[in-house]
Amino acid sequence: MLNADRGGWVFDAGFGVGHRLPRGERATSLFRFLHAADLHLDTQPSGLHGYPAEVAEVLRDASLQAFENLVDVAIDRQVSFCVFAGDIYDGAERGTRAELAFRRGLGRLAGAGIRSFVAHGNHDPVEQGWSTLSQWPEEVTVFGTGSPTTHTLELAGTTVAVHGVSYATRATTDNLALRFVRDPGADVQIGVLHTNVGDDPAHGNYAPCSLHDLRSVGLDYWALGHVHTRRVLAGADPWIVYPGNTQGRHAGASERGAKGAVVVEVGDDGTIAEPEFVPLDTVRFAEVELDATDLADPGALLDELSVLCDALRTEHPGRALVVRTTLRGRGPLHGLLADPTTMGDTLAELRSDWSGRSPVVWWDRIEDLTRPFLDPDEVARQDDFAGNTIRAIDSPLSDPDGDPGESLRTELDRLSKLSPSLRSLGVEVPPPDDPELVERARLLACDLLAEETR
Ligand SMILES: [Mn+2]
After folding, report:
1. What is the pLDDT of residue 53?
2. Which single residue of 82, 218, 233, 243 could bond 34 by disulfide (Cβ 3.0 to 4.6 Å)?
3. What is the DSSP string of 349-416?
């Protein structure tokens, strides 16, 4: 069973405004529904290499297991219905296993009296010829293409309209949101759509629409799919929500962290509460950034990563982890890890250290973005801009007659006009009687100028 940990939300805009009850009053829950999208069933995590059988086994079934978890949660939480906002499947080449798993899960939901509403998106368009199943349990509604259709349910004396539409073809570029129509006879209205809101350039621009388009339809909740990062685009009047995908697929930014669905509570006064995120994933992708400045050698690196990995396992209990680390800073590791053999041996040792765990831990890679250590005394001897800068920092301090603070300020002011890096810092003059601060200023100047002239 799942742990009850909750992932963080990304609130883009408008969260917390609109439907809020006065303090002290709470609507009684009338019913709840589950909203999921981008299941990409039977997709295999991409960009990973060299993992052993124990890891392969977990990765292979992760998307299907996440869907099984979804069904468990829907039954456990006694939702009235589930909506699936597109990209149920990843693509034609994995059709049948994914479809049979989906059918089995929807059958379990139907057996518990839970209806399902399914829209298709750019990864699983209806008319591109790979759907092998045509029969679904009668509690399942698959939205057609072209114009949205509306299905109404009577729940505890309330009429609920669920509107939705599927993509006919992958390259759907029409604004489908504008085709939705509010049902004047329903009390609560939900729209199910796979769409790229706001022409976000980070995502394929399928069925693009604007927040204004969505608001203009007059629904209460937009159950969206397409963007794999969980996002609330608007909090109430209407809610506009991307639940994110149900299982991360690679180590990229949009696929990291907790993945799952949202459970949405509707009150007896028709208000919709803040959607509750429920994690469903079995494998979690994580990245740890590490400042390697003070690490003397690969042994110290392994010790440090071990501490970080323990923390990750505490943060993500019960999940298999695929971890990548990015090393930054300037220090001795830079020279050592530049040797491919040393790097390969270090990664192999790291993987071996963490093998055989349950849940599985797989170290995907060590990204080495460290830089060589710079010695300011050495730089001071160079006949270049960096050398001039370090000498400018050093010389006024050794002038016993002048005002060291003032002459340093003048000199740095002059140099900063020549250098974007120094300019970006502003001219912060260290107090000349604080040698530690002066030394840090020299190192910082060295670093900035080395980056600038790289
Ligand atoms: Mn998708």
Report:
1. 87
2. 82
3. HHHHHTTT-SS-EEEEEEEE--B----HHHHHTSSSHHHHHHHHHHGGGG-SSS-HHHHHHHHHHHHH
More confident residue, 257 or 431: 257
Question: pTM higher than 0.90 for the full model?
Answer: no
Angle at 164 (CA atoms; ends 163, 166), nearest 5 degrees: 165
Cα(183) to centroid(ligand 1), Å = 28
Length of the chain: 454
Strand 29-36, strand 283-291: pairing: unpaired
The rounded distance, in Å, linking the Cα atoms of 223 and 201 is: 21
337's CB contacts (< 8 A; 6+ apart) are 298, 327, 343, 346, 366, 368, 370
Last residue of one domain, picked from the residues 368, 387, 420: 368
Question: Are residue 203 and residue 225 in the same domain, yes or no?
Answer: yes
pLDDT average, residue stretch 48-59: 87
- Tell how far the Cα of 228 is from the centroid of ligand 1, in angstroms: 6
pLDDT of 87 higher than 50: yes
The answer to whether residues 236 and 120 belong to one domain is yes
Cα gap 5→116, rounded to integer Å: 26
Q: Is residue 383 domain-shared with residue 444, that is, in the same domain?
A: yes
Q: Which phi and psi (to 5°) does residue 292 adopt?
A: -90, 10
Which tens digits make up the pLDDT trace of 348-365? 999 999 999 999 999 999
Residue 38 CA to ligand 1 centre (angstroms): 4
| Range(s) of the domain holding residue 188 | 29-281
94 alpha carbon to ligand 1 midpoint, in Å? 15
- The residue with greater pLDDT, 394 or 339, is 339
| 122 CA from centroid of ligand 1 (Å) | 8
Task: Kindly state whether residues 300 and 388 are assigned to the same domain.
Answer: no
Question: Residue type for 450, please?
Answer: A
- For residue 71, how far is its CA from the centre of ligand 1 (angstroms)? 20
Final residue before a domain boundary, out of 326, 346, 368: 368
Q: Residue 137: give its domain's CATH number.
A: 3.60.21.10
Ligand 1 centroid to 298 CA: how many Å? 39
Interval between CA 78 and ligand 1 midpoint (Å): 27
CA nearest to 251, candidates 283, 287, 199: 287
Instruction: Report how far residue 187's alpha carbon sits from residue 164's, in angstroms, rounded to the nearest whole number.
Output: 17
User: pLDDT digit string (tens) for 281-337?
Assistant: 999 999 999 999 889 899 999 999 999 999 999 999 999 999 999 999 888 888 888
Q: What is the pLDDT of residues 1-23, one digit of tens each?
A: 333 333 333 333 333 333 333 44
Asked if residue 208 and residue 336 are part of one domain, the reply reads no
**Residues forming beta bridges with residue 192, ordered by sequence position:** 164, 223
What's the gap in Å between 216 CA and the centre of ligand 1?
25
